[in-house]
Amino acid sequence: MRNVTYKSIALSTILIVILFLGQQQLSTQRPLPLIKISKQESAINFSDELIQIFSTGQSRLISSLIWIETLMESDLDHYGADDLGSWMFLRFNTLNRIDPYFYEVYRYGGQYLSIVKNDRKGATQIYERGLKLFPEKFWLNYHAAFHYYFELNDYKRAIPLFEKIAFTKEGKRIAPFLSSLISRLRLKHQYLSEESYLLAEHAYRQLPKDSNLGKRLYRRLYAIRCQLDLACLNGKGRDCRTRDLDGIRYISHNGTHGARNPRRCNSK
Q1: What is the reported pLDDT for 2?
Q2: Rounded Cα gap, residues 221 and 154, in angstroms
Q3: Which end of the chain is least crowded, N or C, by CB within 10 Å?
């Protein structure tokens, strides 16, 4: 019986490896199309039932392979629809079924869906699942609250998550500004503030800067900094920053300050 089990595990592992290698081989041999095809249209999502059969007894191995493959294929195209149909959400959904306790899917997968793919509904679902299994994880609460705050403008859902981590040892050490942010949200529901910039900055620091997620979050960080700076300059505030996050000086015309690239200043 033990030999049969070992043989079945070995066979299923070989089959999974063949699936991935075959996919890579087909993609390299396929002639390049004249018309660009989005990743949303070309992505291959494996049947959950088929993957579960192959991953019996080795769910972490299979989920790790799919996770790596998904990150390698990640793109910067917004999805935006509200139908849980983005290819990355479908991949993460498969990973959830294979290995519900794969923490990185919740922490980083939620960020990808929220910030990169603009799949708000998919990100919300991933975060909700993750928080049920890992309710005390600092960064999962942090990023989920970030999602509710910036993407959904849902302060009622963001505040309890901020409060859960703000006064922990980790929260006081990593993000001491959270208590001030919570006060602003409770009293004024103010959307952008220095605290919200620090919130985004801390999230950005946790990522590889050359990753798709890091690049997209930097765009968000740049826009927040730009909007805060121009509000200060045009409001005749004190100690206002005169250069953007790239070190480029803001322009001034007839006493009004502006960004050299207004679209970038207001982008998400």
Answers
A1: 45
A2: 19
A3: N
